[in-house]
Amino acid sequence: MIVLGLESSCDETAAALVGADRRILASRVASQMELHAPFGGVVPELAARAHVERLAPMVEAVLAEAGLPLGAVDAIAATAGPGLVGAVMVGLVTGQALAFAAGKPFVPVNHLEAHALSPRLVAPDLAFPYLLLLVSGGHCQLLAVEGAGRYRRLATTLDDAAGEAFDKVGKLLGLGFPGGPAVERLARAGDPRAVPLPRPLVGAAEPHFSFAGLKTAVLRAVAERRHARADIAASFQAAVTDCLVDRTARALAAMPDATALVAAGGVAANTAIRAALEALAARHGLPLVVPPPALCTDNAAMVAWAAIERRQAGLADDPHAPARARWPLDADAEPVRGAGVKA
Amino acid sequence: MPDPLTASAPGGAGPVLVIATGHALSLALVDGADVLGEHHEPLARGHAEALVPALQDLLAGERRPAEVRVETGPGSFTGLRVGIAAARALGLAWGVPVRGVSSSQLVAAEAEASGMTEPLLVVLAAPRGQIWLEPLRDFVPLAPAEALPAEAARARVVAWPHAMTGSGLEVLGVPALQREPRARFGGLVPEGRLGPPLPRYVRAHEAREVA
User: Fold this and answer.
1) Interface touch A48/B199, C-beta < 8 Å
2) Neighbouring C-beta atoms of residue A206, cutoff 10 Å
3) CATH class of A2-118+295-312
4) When comparing pLDDT for A137 and B175, which is higher?
5) What does the domain layout of chain B look like in residue ranges?
6) Residue B114: its pLDDT value, please?
7) CATH placement of domain B105-179
8) Average pLDDT over residues B108-124
9) Domain boundaries defined on chain A
10) d(Cα A57, Cα A62) in Å, to the nearest integer?
11) CATH numeric code, B16-103+183-192
12) Residues B49, A40: C-beta atoms closer than 8 Å
């Protein structure tokens, strides 16, 4: 089975061809970073504009790269949410129209599920259930992944996503957008203990994340002009790492049957965070699985793979599913205060 | 391999699928002035959900077109993008050309079919009480399309000495035949007047650059 996957939920336009044998036949991602950077964040209208220009040529490019006609594809999948709804729509309608014209099944994919299952694309031995820390610019969640379509949300953020906090701190430090990789680079030259910063909710009985207070503390530290920017970056990164590790440790304790700790999303590409999670997993006798960076950030191979997993699990999806701004993986999860704005 | 429909039709012509989603949800399979099938429903929102099911109904019986034409605006940004994304996907899957037809050209084609003489001022209702204006002659814009507040648009309309048409006239209280772009007239626009299948954004996006 070969699936064509499409992704357009935020500011990356992506298309990929993936086989059920886990071969990635072609995978392309066009970042829109240069379009959004002058505005200090993703502008939804600009994102949708770029997707409609770039997606069809990109589909042609991945088919050409794999040397396959569209007729050789067994199914077509596209992200149907959660995300910027005008952006999601472009990929979703493209996928639905391709499937209709080529006479192929169409699979609408939850972007979060694509992240959640992406580790299995590169780690064939990764068995369910595993604990997933999904950390990106739009999401910060801990999920028990029990199978395709089967998720229990153990924690979410009460305010900002971790990657969002990185981006905002990057902006405060004058590093431009997106801030995550730039903050990490600057942090390497700084002292992580130099600036006292809070660790919101660390040790708390409730399971969730919160980063708004940390961001405010960074704002104050920047305004004081007493600290070197590298020290602020390093201290901020250390605080985020402590928060992620503490909350993840709590979730691991609540999930004794977990086979692995998995981290996905753009923030999982941060070396310091990854090292801390590695140590945490080792303390629990578990492997840490982190997909390679190209699969951690938004991409379409994970979308195609999620469709393969869903079809193999016998799950039936409505091909006419609408684009959704919000689409929680665990529909039964209790709403938490402030959360859910992003997913 | 030549498309069977294209190959059998004289001069390489064949049915054209027209997708217009900048205003209504308007789809038609046409051959010049002949309308082989049509789906037209006034729809302010929800084009994305309705489009592919409507295409399936329209093209049931394996009527595969030789060309796709898609409305490029001015119209609802989201609606236009949905139609253009679908049109480009269909063209890719079928291996047929995809061309852009402007909203004003669709309206002008209808006006011309009913005997209205050119030059023509196309006046279309835009969101938030605004009006899109585009003067055309022989399907070519005489000036760039504009989005104007109703008062400014009314002044333009009053000063225009020739024929005018479009859904925006009703908004301005000017008596006229009301028209929104309809896909069934897409086959009447000469090929040389068509453009690329990309949205024409008349109003600029509203994001401001950070200092």
Assistant:
1) no
2) 12
3) alpha beta
4) A137
5) 16-103+183-192, 105-179
6) 85
7) 3.30.420
8) 89
9) 2-118+295-312, 128-290
10) 9
11) 3.30.420.40
12) no
What is the dihedral sign for C-alpha A322, A325, A329, A335?
negative
* Chain A interface with B: residues with Cβ < 8 Å: 38-40, 43, 45-46, 48-49, 51-53, 55-56, 59-60, 70, 86, 89-98, 100-102, 320, 322-323
- Asked if pLDDT for residue B128 goes beyond 90, the answer is no
Q: How far apart are the first and last CA of chain A?
A: 30
Question: Quick one: tokens of A334?
Answer: 């209790």
| Closest CB from A59, A90, A320 relative to B53 | A320
| Domain A2-118+295-312 matches domain A128-290 at the CATH topology level | yes
Q: Which of B92, B201, B207 sits opposite A60 (nearest CB)?
A: B92
For the record, the structure tokens of A153 come out as 């949300």
The predicted-structure confidence for A151-174, as pLDDT tens digits, reads as follows 999 999 999 999 999 999 999 999
Strand duo A12-19 + A24-31: pairing: antiparallel
Instruction: Looking at chain A, list the stretches that DSSP marks H as alpha helix, in order from N- to C-terminal side.
Output: 33-36, 44-66, 85-102, 111-122, 162-172, 180-187, 212-224, 229-253, 271-283, 293-296, 301-312
| Identity of the residue in A38, A52, A98 whose CB atom sits nearest the CB atom of B93 | A98
CATH class of A128-290: alpha beta
pLDDT in tens, A28-72: 999 888 888 888 788 898 899 999 999 999 999 999 999 999 999
Q: How much is the pTM?
A: 0.90
What value of ipTM does the predicted structure carry? 0.90
* Mean pLDDT across A82-110: 97
Q: How confident is the model at residue B178 (pLDDT cuts 50, 70, 90)?
A: low
Could you read off the pLDDT of A179-238 as tens digits, one per residue? 899 999 999 999 999 999 999 999 999 999 999 999 999 999 999 999 999 999 999 999
B85 contacts on A by Cβ (under 8 Å):
51-52, 55-56, 89-91, 93-94, 97
pLDDT score of B7 more than 80: no
Percent of chain B past pLDDT 70, that is, above it, reads 89
Rounded CA-CA distance B201/B79 in Å is: 12
Query: Do residue B207 and residue A45 have CB atoms under 8 angstroms apart?
Result: yes
Q: Which of B3, B21, B45, B49 to mutate to test the interface with A (most CBs of A within 10 A)?
A: B49
Q: How far is B84 from chain A (nearest CA, A)?
A: 7
